[in-house]
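From the methods appendix. Each design record in this collection lists the tokenized structure first, followed by the designed amino acid sequence. Records were kept in a plain field format so they could be parsed without special tools. The example shown here is representative of the layout used throughout.

RECORD:
FOLD TOKENS (665 positions):
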């Protein structure tokens, strides 16, 4: 590509940078609506305009068959269809109301698929809380499990943090058998959502029912046997005198203490949106007028997000994650003089978002990992250290320390950088991989106890290619700038992490991406980490295979496009109609650039760059396309900023690579 074409790429980068200032990740609003309805705070927290925007989002993504998917591109499932139905009714829509008869169409879908008794386990619990179903129609979640000795393999403290913090408040609410006040609306919903009269439903027989559309992760037989044993033998004993006055009372007190600890250490944000509403509800059940519940109410705005398609509830925000990538994209553009202010305020946000202290008290007894020096996915208040967020935050601070302070602000103190390195090293496993949140405490077989029918790998903490690659990238740069700090440990960590990337590569050269869709995302991270570790196309068979994977999946229009179905099928699935996706095209281009494609044959990069350039809108924005993020294999996520960050970053890296190749020739 000649200099004029490189100039076009440069010209396209500049206006796109303006759009790297808005961050969000959308998620689920239904639970907050139901929680506020139960507690009587719906109108005081969500204004009429809030409620109108929530309804607009619901209508926007109703499928033609009347249902809703687990995510906005998914097929209709019972869980989200029932939850959205209840949400519409709470927000004032009548049985035949809603845009384009949305309520009646949803109800018809529910009835046609067996009624609300076929909702998965999480939905059964919410229906029991609301009074639309009975607690006897759910599998037991006894709070007594928190009284088990820690050495027991199934102690909840050994579970992955997300699983643990969801089932913590659920076990409290189950132990209390809490049921919201039965209002006239609830009585109507009992009639509307079930296929037979409420009083005739045999609740004991519906515990294991689950609509086939929802059943992504079927329960193994051993799990159902455990549920049945708890239901038939254990729970009747725990709910009768004297055990209900002794053991259950003690268990409820302990679970409440754990809930309070998590609330306090996350400044009442909690780890995520599912946990937020459950912990908030538990606090209200314990004391409707208490400080804890009021503090929860004050943090609801942290989750709300309004966009072109209405009001959503973020899963937990991705401010730090998005800022880290945006800063690196801006730095790669080589337009420091033009974007200095953006870099400075981004730098300020990153520095202020670093977690300054570990969780309170003896945090290991509360099943928490060290956090001092880490970065979370969102901000400092969140408090939950994440390895790749920490690595990306560390790398940004190191890169910005190389620029004049009068442009990007004062650099971070070395001691704070050392703390970040400490967190990353603490999360590396013996196999070289890096975990996301905390040490792995449970054996792999415990994953058989995953109670969620639509999420996978939620019980046991795992190592991830993305976390490992980000850690390599940051540690290599840190080692270069601070060679005297824990040099041997960091060298060994990089070596072991590199080995992990090689060991986990798929036969086709890709890696499974756990947080993005999917094999293209994994390949970008894998090649990024290997390049940082010094692996090259000529010396590494791993790099060679990954390069071949990306080249063979490039489309005729020069782009790449992968379906979210890759995440669930665990095999590469192209977008329908061989459509390309700009974000995935950007990932693939950067992966190839890291692998030295510009030096061997830049034509695939030229074709990809041409697609990105020609796709940019007049205002510098890039069009929003398919979802790009994923959580636990089956829940797809929308990162609103990705559509601008990654095309800018890819074009910047492309321009640099082509310039360097031209100079070397």
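DESIGN:
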């Amino acid at each position: 590509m000649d200099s004029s074409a490189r100039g076009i790429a440069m010209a396209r980068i500049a206006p796109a940078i303006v759009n790297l200032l808005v961050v969000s990740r959308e998620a689920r609003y239904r639970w907050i609506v139901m929680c506020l309805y139960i507690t009587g705070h719906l109108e005081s927290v969500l204004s009429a305009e809030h409620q109108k925007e929530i309804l607009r989002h619901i209508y926007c993504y109703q499928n033609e068959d009347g249902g809703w998917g687990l995510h906005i591109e998914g097929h209709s499932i019972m869980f989200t269809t029932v939850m959205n139905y209840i949400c519409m009714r709470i927000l004032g829509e009548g049985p035949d109301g809603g845009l384009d008869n949305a309520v009646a169409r949803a109800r018809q879908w529910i009835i046609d698929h067996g009624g609300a008794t076929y909702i998965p386990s999480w939905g059964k619990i919410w229906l029991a809380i609301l009074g639309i179903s009975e607690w006897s129609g759910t599998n037991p979640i006894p709070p007594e499990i928190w009284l088990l000795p820690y050495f027991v393999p199934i102690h909840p403290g050994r579970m992955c943090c997300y699983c643990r913090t969801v089932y913590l408040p659920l076990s409290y609410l189950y132990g209390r058998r809490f049921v919201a006040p039965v209002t006239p609306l609830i009585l109507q919903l009992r009639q509307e959502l079930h296929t037979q009269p409420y009083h005739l439903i045999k609740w004991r027989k519906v515990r294991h029912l689950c609509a086939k559309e929802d059943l992504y992760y079927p329960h193994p037989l051993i799990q159902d046997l455990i549920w049945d044993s708890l239901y038939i033998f254990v729970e009747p004993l725990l709910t009768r005198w004297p055990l209900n006055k002794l053991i259950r009372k003690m268990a409820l007190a302990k679970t409440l203490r754990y809930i309070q600890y998590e609330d306090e250490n996350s400044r009442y944000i909690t780890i995520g949106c599912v946990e937020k509403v459950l912990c908030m509800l538990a606090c209200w059940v314990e004391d409707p007028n208490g400080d804890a519940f009021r503090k929860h109410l004050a943090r609801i705005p942290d989750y709300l997000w309004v966009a072109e398609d209405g009001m959503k509830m973020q899963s937990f925000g991705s401010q730090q994650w998005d800022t880290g990538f945006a800063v690196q994209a801006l730095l790669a553009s080589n337009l420091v003089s033009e974007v200095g202010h953006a870099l400075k305020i981004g730098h300020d946000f990153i520095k202020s978002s670093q977690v300054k202290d570990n969780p309170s008290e003896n945090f290991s007894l509360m099943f928490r990992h060290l956090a001092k020096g880490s970065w979370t996915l969102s901000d400092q208040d969140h408090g939950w250290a994440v390895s790749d967020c920490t690595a990306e935050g560390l790398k940004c601070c190191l890169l910005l320390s190389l620029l004049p302070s009068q442009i990007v602000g004062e650099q971070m103190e070395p001691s704070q950088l050392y703390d970040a390195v400490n967190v990353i090293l603490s999360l590396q496993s013996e196999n070289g991989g890096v975990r996301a949140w905390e040490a792995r405490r449970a054996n792999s077989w415990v994953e058989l106890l995953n109670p969620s029918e639509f999420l996978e790998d939620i019980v046991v903490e795992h190592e991830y290619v993305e976390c490992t690659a980000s850690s390599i990238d940051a540690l290599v740069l840190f080692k270069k700038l601070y060679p005297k700090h824990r040099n041997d440990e960091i060298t060994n960590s990089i070596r072991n992490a590199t080995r992990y990337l090689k060991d986990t590569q798929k036969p086709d050269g890709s890696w499974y991406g756990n947080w993005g869709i999917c094999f293209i995302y994994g390949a970008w991270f894998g090649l990024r980490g290997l390049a940082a570790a010094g692996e090259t196309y000529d010396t590494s068979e791993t790099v060679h295979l990954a390069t071949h994977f990306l080249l063979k999946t490039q489309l005729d229009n020069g782009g790449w496009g992968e379906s979210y179905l890759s995440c669930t099928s665990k095999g590469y699935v192209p977008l329908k109609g061989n459509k390309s996706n700009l974000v995935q095209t950007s990932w693939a281009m950067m992966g190839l650039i890291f692998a030295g494609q510009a030096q061997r044959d830049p034509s695939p990069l030229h074709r990809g760059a041409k697609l990105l350039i020609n796709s940019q809108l007049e205002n510098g924005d890039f069009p929003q396309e398919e979802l790009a993020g994923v959580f636990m294999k089956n829940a797809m996520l929308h990162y609103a900023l990705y559509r601008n960050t990654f095309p800018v970053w890819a074009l910047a890296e492309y321009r640099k690579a082509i310039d360097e190749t031209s100079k070397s020739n």
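APPENDIX NOTE: The mean pLDDT is 94.
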